[in-house]
Design goal:
Structural class: alpha/beta
Number of strands: 10
Number of helices: 12
Distance between the termini: 14 Å
Shape: globular
Strand content: 5-15%
Amino acid sequence: MSENRMSNKFKILAIDGGGFRGAYSAHLLKRIEEEFAVNWRHDFKLLAGTSTGAIIAAGLAIGIPANEICDLYKKHGHDIFKKSTIPRLGLFASKYKNVGLRNILDSFFGEATLGDIESPLIIPATDIGNGCVHVFKSTYHNEFFRDKEVLVSEAVLASCSAPMFFPPTLISGDQPYLLSDGGLWANNPALVAAIDAKKRLNAKLEDLQILSIGTGKANQFYPIKNFKNRRFFGWGFATKWGRGKIIEMLFSLQSQNANNMLGLLLERNQILRLNFELEKKLPMDAPDEFDDLITRADREFTHSSSFIKTFLNK
C-alpha cells in the first residue's frame, strides 16, 4: 500500500468499559505510546471511550500522557471502590458512593469542558430519565452544541455510573439529564465511533482503521453444573448470581456484539482488537488486581507489537 494511501487512513481509538480493569487498557496504551512515539490527538482522528474507557479517552484527548492515566488507577483505585460501612438495602442498591470517583475526576480534568477539546471525542452514556441513549461529544461538528459547556469530569462520571456499582449522575443545566453507564448499550464504543466517523466526519468505510482496546473477556459466566438441581428455585438461585454479575455479563455481551458487527462491516485488516481472556474471576471493582492487570497488558503488548507497529505504520 502506498504511503499516500496510508496517510488517508482514518484512525479511531476505541476503549471499552470494564471498571478497574481499565488499568489494563491504560497500561497497554502507555506501552504503545512510549514504544512507538504515538501522539493520540495527532495520529488518531477520533477517540471514543465508555465508562472506564471514557477516563482514558478523555485524558488522551486533552493531552494527558497515558502513563499519568495509568497512575490514576494505581493511586486511586481503592478510593474509587471504597466499601461503605452503611448496609445496602435492596438488590439493586449502589455498591459504592460516587464521591471518591467524582473528586478524583474533578481533580484530574479540572475545569475543562467538552467545548475545550479540539480532538473529536465520543463518550457514551445512558439517559435513564428518558429511557434512551445519550452520547457526549466534543464540538467537532457544527451541529454539536448541547455538550459544549459540560465539564469533562461530569461527562466521564456519567459514563462510569454502572448500575449496582454507582448511583446515576445528574447533569444540570437548561435541560437536566439523569444518566447512567454507557456500557448498557455501547460498552465497546468502536461501532458508535465508526458510524459517527462516516456520518459526521465524512470518512469512507474503506479508510477506517480501528484500534479497539478491551478490558477482558470471561470464558464462562455460569457453569452448567450450577444450574442442575436448582432450576425450580428461580433463575438467580439456579445460576448463583452475585451482585453486579448481570451487569458484567451484559457489558461483555455488548462488547462482543459490537466487535462482531464491525467485523461484518469492515475488512479484517481494518480492526485491531487487543484484549485478554479471564481465566479466573476478575470483577470490575478489584483494585488489588492492579499488578496482575499490568502483567496482562505487558504480555499483550509483547505478543501484538508487530501488529500494532503495522497498524500505526511505524
